[in-house]
Amino acid sequence: MTFKKFRLFAMLLVAFALVAAACGGDDSSTETTVASGGSDTTVVAPPAGEPLKVAFVHVGPVADKGWSWAHDQGAQFIKGSLGDAVEITTLENIAEGSDAQRIFEDLAAKGNTLIFGTSFGYMDPMLAAAENYPDTVFMHATGYKTSDNMGNYFGAAEEARYLSGMAAGAATETNLIGYVAAFPIAEVLRGINAFTLGAQEVNPDVEVQVVWTSTWFDPPIEGTAAQSLLDAGADVIAMHQDSAAPGQAAETEGAGWVGYNTDMTEFAPTAWLTAAIWDWGPFYLETANQVIDGTWKSEAVYGTMADGMVALAPFGESVDQATQDVILEREAEIKDGSFSVFPDPIVNQDGESQPLGDIQIMDYFVEGVIGSATG
Amino acid sequence: MAARRFIVEPRGLVSWKVRLLVPVLSVIAALVVGAIFLALTGENPFDVYGQMVDSAFGSSRALSETLITATPLILTGVAAAIAFKMLVWNIGGEGQFIMGAIFASGFAIWLGDGAPAYIALPVVIVAGGLGGAFWASIAAIPRVYLGTNEIITTLMLNFIALSFMNFLIFGSSSPWRDPAVSTFPQGRPIPESARLPEIFNRLDGGLFIAIALAVGAWYLIGKTTWGFEVRIVGDSADTARYAGIGVARKILGIFLLSGAYAGFAGGLFVSGPVGALDPRSLDLGLGFTGIIVAALAGLHILAVIPVAILMAALVNSGPALQSIGVPTATVTMLQGAILIFVVAGEFFIRNRVRRLEPEPTPEPVEVEAT
Q1: Which residues in chain B show pLDDT less than 50?
Q2: What is the CATH number of the domain that holds A69?
Q3: Number of folded domains in chain A?
Q4: pTM
Q5: Does A121 reside within a domain?
Q6: Is A274 helix (H, G, I), strand (E, B) or coil?
Q7: Do residue B302 and residue A144 have CB atoms under 8 angstroms apart?
């Protein structure tokens, strides 16, 4: 056995390293020039006459008809409103975590002035990319970190969750609602609690049983989880997932279903009750306009039902008129601020009254939820 | 039987030219097929290929990102190559990679901020190797002494390692989990002294450590007595036994070495670009991709290095193609075509297709079949 043949590879490698070192010197200086080309303000509007380049980065496929799809609808809303004044790039199936920094920097280097990352796990890589590209506006959904040129945004899904809970509470006959949930984090716990309080408003005897899947989008696991809840006696399934699989399980068993993210009626037309859904379009358009005008400022935006970022999906056939009326009345009160979803103090899972606390770091269940708030 | 015009026969000695020419032709064939497909779907193949090259090597940033992606692939590729070469079917690189990352981040956190970099860095890298070797040993020891099938055990251990990492971050208040973050469970950042310094752009020193380790593996197996004996075991266990070589211990050794290399990859990845035991950053299939790299490299240890770099270029070009409007499915198809053509090309490296001339030989060997 001879190993002489590897010499060429070794040489190639050395050549590679040399090229790398050589390029390193050159190119970084070009980048600095580009960076210093901007004005002193954090945000640089695109030169007049050129379209604003906007990029979207999604963790899943935009065809998921769930979370990523809802954001993609928002992107199309910008395009529909601004037409040739914007140029939109969409990247899907981009893994979260440190590897995503490359993606964000690549988009910034290609001249995108406004970049949206629509998944929690993009937070730290986006923050690092924002530091390296100070003239690009970064917008991160669902996180909690901001910087001079990185804002974050999310919405009060709990408001619509409460209303969808009312529909579920009215629909259940066994007084047991199954809830297929992703991860035991504040966002999800908030949703479960609001949903449960809503269900209890119309049906004080109702209980909500939670099953954790540790997935956001994994149809087989999420469908199986829903099935296990149906087997345990639940006759309505709610969910904090991006797939429609729990609804399809409910449809098969003749149970009711409260979805999430988008109007998913088509997946389970009989089971469908309603859902908390997202409408990102107006917010995305506003952000794009701010960047065009040069008025964008880094902030943490928390949208509501009142401003339209969060909405309630159309009701399914099985939701009777009386129930719809009660829910719509509550919706009006939530929108005008006369009703708030969470009472303070609040009764926790153990039946004890406790202060509500900051709902952004909510880590407990309310009374009537069966399951563990720590996963 | 006169209809049979072509014959496939194994090449004896494979010449240097064939070794190099066939993969190059394979890639060209894949690009031609891809170009037809792209043209049919309304893309300009030249734009697409130009973008692919540009996104992987077109700027210092692109090049450094390609090398960052290549770093763990070099080591998981070496891990697979050394094992497969010796007929040890360790497909547990993924799990060994994760266990390496768990060990490396664990030791980094345990050492804390106090340790200087010249202690912390070696400890973290060695810990990665130990973690990988430990995880491999769970499959290796039963394989060697009880004859269990390592394909099954190493495959299953991948899932256990992944679940264990998820447990450490999502399911428990382990030292790996960041106590400062309550909104979403995350890995605790390892101390700065245990992080590999960045050399240019985001590229850290991990690349050079990976290359050095790969060269080390090549030297160990190709140039030392131990390596010579291991290669005899790989060629023929019976021959090795007659020669008085302890076959079991050699197989165990190569298995653990393979695990250690996958573990080094995990350690360097944590110490380099990731900086924490972050399941989202680590669960990229780098261990599995290492198997493809090894196969494309023909299981030659040093060939793994350039193949890993090209593989990284191919992987990284995906999002860049999406950004010029090529659909995700088309991107995956293109990447898949290139891989399949190259792997299929291996067939032509080992065999030759020869046209069967109507030979006027007097030998009437090819009798008509009854």
Answers
A1: 1, 370
A2: 3.40.50.2300
A3: 2
A4: 0.81
A5: yes
A6: strand
A7: no
Q: Give the pair of three-digit tokens for residue A154.
A: 């999310």
Q: Are residues A58 and A95 in the same domain?
A: yes
pLDDT at B365: 55
The b/e string for A81-119 (b: 16+ C-beta within 10 A; e otherwise) is ebeebbbbbbbbbbbbbbbbbbbbbbbbbeebbbbbbbb
User: Which residues in B lie closer than 8 A to residue A102 (C-beta atoms)?
Assistant: 65, 68, 202, 316
How far B31 CA sits from the closest chain A CA (Å)?
23
- Residue B303 distance to chain A (closest CA, Å): 7
In a domain, A131, yes or no: yes
Q: Does the distance separating the beta carbons of A20 and B61 come in below 8 Å?
A: no
* Structural domain ending residue among the three candidates A137, A155, A173: A155
In 3D space, the residue among B126, B71, B4, B28 whose CA is nearest the CA of residue B272 turns out to be B71
Print the domain residue range for A107: 52-155
**Helix, strand, coil percent content, chain A, rounded in steps of 5:** 45, 20, 35
Per-residue model confidence as pLDDT tens digits over A134-166: 999 999 999 889 999 999 999 999 999 999 999
Which of B339, B221, B263, B216 lies closest to B72, judged by CA?
A: B263
Q: Residue B222 and residue A1: Cβ atoms within 8 Å? A: yes
CA distance B126 to chain A (A): 23
Q: Which of A11, A57, A102 to mutate to test the interface with B (most CBs of B within 10 A)?
A: A102
Sign of the alpha-carbon torsion through A220, A225, A228, A230: negative
Our CA angle for A8, A12, A17, nearest 5°, is 150
> Do A271 and A164 share a structural domain?
yes
List the beta bridge partners of residue A86: A52
Question: Percent of chain B having pLDDT more than 90?
Answer: 55
- Measured at the CA of B173, the angle between CA B168 and CA B175, to 5 degrees, comes to 70
Tell me, yes or no, whether A150 and A232 share the same domain.
no
End-of-domain residue from the set A155, A180, A198: A155
Residue A198, in any domain of the structure: yes
Say if residues A118 and A71 touch (Cβ distance below 8 Å).
yes
Is residue A318 classed exposed, middle or buried when 0-12, 13-18 and 19+ CB atoms within 10 A define those classes? middle
DSSP single-letter state for residue A205: T
- Tell me, what's the ipTM? 0.80
- Do both A73 and A63 map to the same domain? yes
Mapping DSSP onto H, E and C, the string for chain B reads CCCCCEEEEECCCCCHHHHHHHHHHHHHHHHHHHHHHHHHCCCCHHHHHHHHHHHHHCCHHHHHHHHHHHHHHHHHHHHHHHHHHCCCCCCCHHHHHHHHHHHHHHHHHHHCCCCCHHHHHHHHHHHHHHHHHHHHHHHHHHHHHHCCCHHHHHHHHHHHHHHHHHHHHHHCCCCCECCCCCCCCCECCCCHHHCCCEEECCEECHHHHHHHHHHHHHHHHHHCHHHHHHHHHHHCHHHHHHCCCCHHHHHHHHHHHHHHHHHHHHHHHHHHHHCCCCHHHHCCCHHHHHHHHHHHCCCCCCCHHHHHHHHHHHHHHHHHHHHCCCCHHHHHHHHHHHHHHHHHHHHHHHEEEEECCCCCCCCCCCCCCC
- The answer to whether position A332 is within a domain reads yes
| B162 vs A: CB within 8 A | no
**Same domain flag for A66 and A146:** yes
Share of chain B above pLDDT 70, in %: 94
Touching B: A residues 254-313, CB under 8 Å:
none
Pair A224, A344 in one domain:
yes
Q: Are residues A136 and A208 in the same domain?
A: no
Q: Position B203: which residue type?
A: L
Distance between CA atoms of residues B86 and B240, nearest Å = 12
Task: Examine the domain organization and report whether A202 and A243 are in the same domain.
Answer: yes
